[in-house]
Amino acid sequence: MTEASSAATVASATQPQLVIDNVFKQFGEGPGAVIAVDNVSFDVKPGEFVSVIGPSGCGKSTLFNIIGGLLDEYSGNVMIERERIAGPHKAVGMVFQEESTFPWRSVMDNVAFPLELQGVAKSERLDRAAHFIDLVGLKGFEKRMPFELSGGMRQRVSIARTLVSGPQILLMDEPFAALDEQTRLLLGDKITQIQQELHQTTLLITHNLTEAVQLSDRIVVMTYRPGKVKRVVNIDLPRPRTSDVVSSDAFGHYVAEIWADLREEASRGMQDSENMQRGRARRG
Amino acid sequence: MGKLLNSRAFAISTGVFTVVGVFVLLEVLLRIGAINKYIVPLPSQVIMSLERIIFEENIMSRVAETAYEMSVSCAAVIVIGVPIGAVLYKWVALRRAVLDWVAAMAAAPLVLAFPLFLVMFGRSSTTIIVMSVITGLAPIIIKTTEGLLAVRPVLINVGKSLKLTQQQMFWKILLPAAMPTIFSGIRLSWTFVLISVVGIEFLINLGGLGQLINDLAERYDLPGTYASIGFVIVVSVIFFVLLERVETWLRPVK
Lengths: 284, 254
What we know:
The complex is a heterodimer. Chain A has 8 helices and 10 strands. By secondary structure, chain A is α/β, with parallel strands linked by helices. In chain A, helix 7 runs antiparallel to helix 8 (249-283). Chain A is globular, with a radius of gyration of 19 Å. Chain A starts with a helix and ends with a helix. Mean pLDDT of chain A is 88; it is low at 1-12. By secondary structure, chain B is mostly helical. Chain B folds into 2 domains: 1-40, no CATH class; 48-250, MetI-like fold (Orthogonal Bundle). Chain B has helices spanning 2-5, 8-31, 43-56, 59-90, 92-107, 114-121, 125-149, 153-161, 166-204, 209-218, 222-250. In chain B, helix 9 (166-204) runs antiparallel to helix 11. The model of chain B has no long low-confidence stretch (mean pLDDT 90). The interface between A and B is medium-sized, with 22 and 21 residues.
């Protein structure tokens, strides 16, 4: 039995930490209404890395906002250890797609921000922040301002800022979307390393197939609008995992398998988008 | 070469040489009669008049008086304007109702209402300060509201995800994020205030440098008048240098 499959066995034996149960969200009313998320259900077990993947417009970001408590009005349940969440929950740490460091604070002050809010003594919060800055590989950049860092480094600052308050669940919305492929793969390594070191329960929202396979234990594939769960794929690649895994046959097999599902959805999305453009052009 | 051109020393020396160059050019144009000496005095005469202005016209106390009126007015526009801007950001209906009026206020020649203020506050520094504050308020209100409205939603979402209270959200995220725009408003407001203080001193013939300019102009002492205007420029430069320092200290962002 591989290390990964034994970890999966342990995970399956434990209770889910995060349960998404029949979540439904519709924007607008009447004929123009758009169903963004249609009765989506899945769960995430402690220490597990789950990705939600789907084409643009499948409701991934809506789901992210619902789980993060930024969208209140929806039906169904989002439960963290059997508690239904309404609004942002202290157990969930969010990393956003857009660059979200505070430009007026240094790297150290950015990362220490959540601890400052909690009233943690200065020396302790600097120590804890320094630990997470080191963890994301930014040791030596503590006094730098965000404008002095690259996009990838800034995103790592955001991740450290989220991790410093010790969230039970790390929720990330396409955190590497704005980065080039090579930086993305290397940051993937960093995320895998952190996740394994902290046994961090993680839910990643992404549209990037290789990223999802590289990082995840399970992948939830969504349909194009309305966003439903099409399939859940278990990724049985060995851990500890690095970006070297992308050259393995098994990796290619998973990518091909999920792409077969996604291709149809992405085509529908593209078709829909083109029809909308044509409609707009006709209306002048 | 490029490094030298971008250096601070090069910028400062270029500025100094430009001013000296303009003075020399003016001197020449005036001496050859290309510009009327009864409109613009010789720069050399302006420089010579400095000693007279400093010792006979009690310039330092006048500078102090103008600087006091400017300081109080400049502080007041921030203390009053930023909270009003924040209130207009928060209350959408109020913003829709009054923001256009505030913008119109910025364009209104409020200085013409000085007789009204003289009736209310008398011929005193209070009149100068109150009128200058009212004149300078509009830009800072507008820019504060604009800055707060332009805060990137993702920063607000970070605050929400960290369960910030409304007060924490304002002080820890909204205000610092809006600070560059608010400082643009402060710069505009202070420009209005500085013009207004000297202008009203001139108009009601009271106080510091504005009154001195008025006196010297009425005596037809052109070199003295221009030398006094030079002092107004010096005071304004000091105010804006201080503002720049404060801005850099508060937010060291490129």
